[in-house]
Design goal:
four-stranded antiparallel sheet, 142 residues, 4% helix
Length: 142
Amino acid sequence: MSVRSTICQRTTPGDPQRLSLRDVIGRRRRVLTIKRLRCIETEDLVGRDEARLEVWADGQFDGALRMRLKNGQHKNLGAVHEFNDSVRVLLFDEDVSEPSDILRHDADDTLGSHGFAALGSQTRHFTRDGAHYELSIEVTEG
């Protein structure tokens, strides 16, 4: 008769194979902290971009941040998102000039996307369609 426990697993009678604590409790979750988004160059020719940062944790939508930025401006965000394996951040320009306007999406609204899994502080650039944004993040174990 083979006996299983959360600490040992017998592969053959009398031959226990030890499991690590990570095998028992699973991998620790990771935490993405979005520190800052800086606009170096807007996608719009005049005025501010209506920037939307979307966060997708492990393939599931996990929220969006919206802000209006013009050249040289930045927003300190401090947004925190948990994930297991990977997280993807996408940046869009929504092309909204007034709150009453209808969102006008065209093929140029996606300014880029970046995936994160590695631990540490990181900086990524979004440079599609003439825009240039710099995103500062940090990934830690939770």
